[in-house]
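yo, SJCHGC09733 protein is done. seq:
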Amino acid sequence: MDRIRALNLKPNPDKCRFRVSEVQYVGHLLTDMGVKPDPGKTEAVRLMPTPENKLGLGSSMTNYLSKFIQRYREVPVPCVTFCV
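structure:
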């Protein structure tokens, strides 16, 4: 609170949450362990139909999740080969 006062900010008490272990913000889950994907978005990707062509592989939803998948850029190459 001292820092908020020092910056002359006036937080809205109805919108403030203190001492919480996780917060959803801009499509991400911010936790004490770091940034994670929003569970709702990961579920949406899981329920997406299996792509049958190259166009289906270019989904923006999977691109959103790419930062959470190690070596993501290596995965589409075999998939594109499979769809051709």
